[in-house]
Amino acid sequence: MHYWQSEGFFGGHIALDFVNTIDDEGKQRERSGIPDWQTSVEWARAIGLLEEVEIPTANDTEAEAEQYALHVLRESAWRSLSAIAAGRPADPADLEVLKRELLYAGQHATLRQNGKSIAWHVSSDSDIGAKLIRTRVALELTNLFSHGPLERLRECHRCTGLFLDRGRGAGRRWCRMGTCGNRAKIERYRARAQ
C-alpha cells in the first residue's frame, strides 16, 4: 500500500498533492509515491483527476516515457513551489519546464461549465492518450499559480511536503500531525531525555 492510500492527501490543492507524491522521511525526496505507470493511474483516480472509466492509453514505451515526464514535472513544480514557500526565487530552468507543460495543457484544454463555474478541462476523448494525467496536473498547477493562495504555502519542517496553511494562529509546521508532527515531538523528547 502506498502512503497516500493510508495517509490521505494533505496539501489542500490537487497540484500540491501531486508534488507531495514522495514517501520521504527527512528532506531527501528519494522514494516516489507514484513509482510506476499503474500507480500513477491509481493516484490520479484517487485524487479525482481521472474518473473510474477513464483509462489513459499507453503501450509500455509510452507509459515509461510518460512516467518519466510526470516525475520531471513533479520535481520542477516542487522546487519552484518550495522556493515560493521559502521566499526565494525559483530556478529559471524549472520555470521553463513548467512553462512548456502549462502551454501544452492550454493548447489541449477547453472551457467547460460546471454549474456556476467555468474551468479548463482536458477531455479523455482528446488525442493526447497517455499525456492525460500530466496535462490535467498542469491545469491544476495553472489554477494554483493563478489563484493560490500562495501566500499561505508552507513546507513541512520535517519532510518536503507542501501545503496551504488555512489555520489561524502561529501557523502549521507539519504536513500531518499524525506523521511528521508526532515524529518531531518524539525526537525532541528523546533529545531532552539524554
Describe the structure in your own words.
The protein has a two-stranded antiparallel sheet with strand order 1-2. It contains 7 helices and 4 strands; from the N terminus they run H-H-H-H-H-E-E-H-E-E-H. The chain has one domain (3-193): Jann2411-like domain (Jann2411-like fold, Orthogonal Bundle). With 194 residues, the chain is mainly alpha-helical. It is globular, with a radius of gyration of 18 Å.
Provide the domain count: 1
Strand content: 5-15%
Q: Count the strands?
A: 4
Separation of the first and last Cα atoms: 35 Å
Q: What is the name of the CATH superfamily?
A: Jann2411-like domain
- Spatial arrangement of strands, main beta sheet: 1-2
- Which class best fits the helix and strand makeup? mainly alpha
Low-confidence stretches: none
Would you tell me the overall average pLDDT? 87
Order of helices and strands: HHHHHEEHEEH
CATH topology: Jann2411-like fold
Please describe the topology of this protein.
Blueprint (H helix, E strand, L loop, with lengths): L2 H5 L6 H6 L17 H11 L12 H27 L5 H17 L1 E5 L2 E5 L10 H16 L5 E3 L6 E3 L12 H17 L1
Antiparallel strand pairs: 1-2, 3-4
Helix pairs in contact: 4-5, 4-6, 5-6
Describe this structure in a few short sentences.
The protein has about 190 residues and is mostly helical. The protein has one domain (about 5-194): Jann2411-like fold (Orthogonal Bundle). The protein has helices spanning about 5, 15-20, 35-45, 60-85, 90-110, 130-145, 175-194, and strands spanning about 110-115, 115-120, 155, 160-165.
